[in-house]
Amino acid sequence: MQQLSEHAAAFLDSDNPHANANVSLLHIYDQSTAPQGLVRFKTILAHIESRLGASPVFRRRLMRLPLGMDRPYWVDDEQFDLEYHVRHIALPKPGDWRQFCIQASRIHARPLDQNRPLWEIYVVEGLDSLLELPVGSFALLTKIHHAAIDVESRNEFIEVLHDATRRPPKPEPAEPWFPERPPGPVSLLRRAALHCLTAPTRLLRPLRRAAPATLAFARDLLHPERHLTATRFNAVVTPHRVFDTRRFLVEEFEAIRALVDDAGIDDAVLAVCAGGLRRYLAAHAELPKAELCANVPWTIGLGTDIEDPVQRLARIHAQTAQAQRPAPGRAQPLPCCTITHVTATGKTAWLHGARMSYFSAILPISDGMGLVFAVTCYDGRIVVSPTSCRELMPDPQFFTQCVRDSFQEFLALARAGGRPARTAAARASASGRARPSARTARSAATRPPAAPAGRRRSTAPRR
């Protein structure tokens, strides 16, 4: 038995009927590399069963305390049923990318049964028309609650389910599993009482669930100017999710980052996402004059008020170079999105001989934060995957095209061989004083194409 951390419990407390903290990991495999060129569902089921003992995440469920007096506990699920958690579906013909994104979004949006271990795996077949991916590919969509796994620092599901070689080592005989009997309610209440004696503030835990909304309301009253930079994505979200993705070569991001002295690939990724967001909002006539910000996880300016892409990249790098984390107590700008790296394996991954050819993620959104970018890096490619809700982003394909256009704009400038822009810190170091920088490359971008008509609710944040 293990008690959830404050951080993990906060993800549980954030769940509501229209937004949950599910994380969905998307893996696509080329089964032509597997023995006989085929991986059957029963083979995958047996493979997952052989790895259950490698992580406690698989077979533990939540046990809550009455009235939420203390944080929940992880306990063994005495009724664990593997075939409930691993499911088998197939896309109808033609099995293209749009169908896959729609199906993945629907699965991601459904809440997990919190009386069982907080994960599900969907084996998805029928992926016969995916660009740049082999015909006959299949996918594993692993949905897990954010309270059960920290995908930003360590991705247990990738580590446990995959091998580093095409021919996995012969599995050891599975150790027998005997679930521990969970404690009774009286024992849990005694623990909660002891914890409250040692940390009296835990008695306020039920009230803290409402604290984020209360604090946000108070900040809105004290700092009404925060709404000046609100976008459609700062609204209340609905239960419906949309997801799409774009893949890029790491070596091309290397070329983009060279546009600014000492900039890193992370800076280039942020700049491409910022450019895509700018294009999308401009196409809808919703681009604010003020700079938009993002959580990365601290709040950072995206330079969306800067037309020139190189200067936008320089603006982002100047902040990340100084690690400008917010000072305690200081009012921060209202972020319009979150941009998060999801950890992947650094080497080629294999599932029972099938080579993993694609990896991305669908991340949770919430009221006031209706846009999240998942950034993954695997097999020499960086994948940018925005998640939103259908009413705030009725045109996800257009949004990712804006991200693609932003990337192509940067790449064209990089290939043109322009001199790198120098940040203010670098110029001050070279000359002893800061000077306004001369723009070394001009944007050749045309106005973004008109967005397709779509259904959207009011974007005004609820007060």
Q: What is the structure about, briefly put?
A:
The protein is of the alpha+beta class and 463 residues long. The chain has helices at residues 6-13, 41-50, 82-85, 97-109, 156-161, 185-198, 205-208, 211-222, 250-257, 265-283, 309-321, 396-415, 424-431, and strands at 2-3, 22-30, 60-63, 73-76, 86-90, 119-127, 137-145, 241-243, 246-249, 293-295, 299-301, 335-341, 350-351, 354-362, 372-378, 381-389.
Order of helices and strands: EHEHEEHEHEEHHHHEEHHEEHEEEEEHH
Distance between the terminal alpha carbons, to the nearest Å?
A: 41 Å
Note poorly predicted spans.
425-463
Give the DSSP E fraction (strand runs of 2 or more residues).
15-25%
The description of the largest β-sheet is:
7 strands, mixed
Structural class: alpha+beta
Give the strand tally: 16
Mean pLDDT over the full residue set: 83
User: How many whole angstroms does the radius of gyration measure?
Assistant: 24 Å
Individual helix count: 13
Oligomer: single chain
What level of helicity do the residues show?
Answer: 25-40%
- Principal-axis shape equals globular
Question: Which helices and strands appear, and what pairs or packs with what?
Answer:
Elements: E1 2-3, H1 6-13, E2 22-30, H2 41-50, E3 60-63, E4 73-76, H3 82-85, E5 86-90, H4 97-109, E6 119-127, E7 137-145, H5 156-161, H6 185-198, H7 205-208, H8 211-222, E8 241-243, E9 246-249, H9 250-257, H10 265-283, E10 293-295, E11 299-301, H11 309-321, E12 335-341, E13 350-351, E14 354-362, E15 372-378, E16 381-389, H12 396-415, H13 424-431
Parallel strand pairs: 5-6, 10-12, 12-15
Antiparallel strand pairs: 1-4, 2-7, 2-14, 3-4, 6-7, 8-16, 9-16, 10-11, 13-14, 15-16
Helix pairs in contact: 9-10, 9-12, 10-11, 10-12
